[in-house]
Amino acid sequence: xxxxxxxxxxxxxxxxxxxxxxxxxxxxxxxxxxxxxxxxxxxxxxxxxxxxxxxxxxxxxxxxxxxxxxxxxxxxxxxxxxxxxxxxxxxxxxxxxxxxxxxxxxxxxxxxxxxxxxxxxxxxxxxxxxxxxxxxxxxxxxxxxxxxxxxxxxxxxxxxxxxxxxxxxxxxxxxxxxxxxxxxxxxxxxxxxxxxxxxxxxxxxxxxxxxxxxxxxxxxxxxxxxxxxxxxxxxxxxxxxxxxxxxxxxxxxxxxxxxxxxxxxxxxxxxxxxxxxxxxxxxxxxxxxxxxxxxxxxxxxxxxxxxxxxxxxxxx
Length: 316
Known about the structure:
It holds the Pfam family Epimerase. By secondary structure, the protein is an alpha/beta fold. The protein contains 11 helices and 12 strands. It has a 7-stranded parallel β-sheet with strand order 3-2-1-4-5-6-10, sandwiched between helices.
């Protein structure tokens, strides 16, 4: 199936899920949401229906897919990297087991398309720069481990059952709503501090940087790969890259926009050691070849869009 009229988004009340749901709804697609109780937002007119529950609840998930018959599933629900090390068993249950169960249910009810977001954290810290598309994945945290597990199971179902599994591996994402608990999201946190008139300490050295994408490009990439003809999807998963910048470059850019912004550099060894092993550039040749992917946001216009968004939010 190359088109769909009904889509289910797990984790749909999160920032990425809501923004993506708006795009689908604007295209006339009926969008369903599954997320935890208490995650609802006001005026969610882009969802046809919101189901509240745990993605680990196999009976609930089975009932939703059976009754609603979505033609596409966008599986965004997961524990993020910062919280994945706290409880390894829980992380495996949510990020791996629940994902595998959802894919099996999707196969049983012949869901046309299944999208799964992955990460370059699946490669671990001992990478090459630029990162080749065929580089071996040896993750060094539980978040990356579960992502690899789901990638492999999705690819297995694609090979054995004709399952339309589509996967994108994202680098660091520059987002106005980056969780404050996400240590590696310090570029987003620095932008927020500058917009609010606060000082900021970068938890990395001045010259430390890595591959990055702006949130709007992330959303657009999911939309574009989901609409690409199935015959064009030749890779089990696609690596994406937007741009690269260092902590020093970001500090200088924010200082240019906000002359009163004060910042410093005091490396946190945990963050520094994680970031420094990740590549500055991720090769995304296959995405360009197969479905014409091209990022729209570079460093300059990403920061501009980021600060405009944060300024609008801080006014309310």
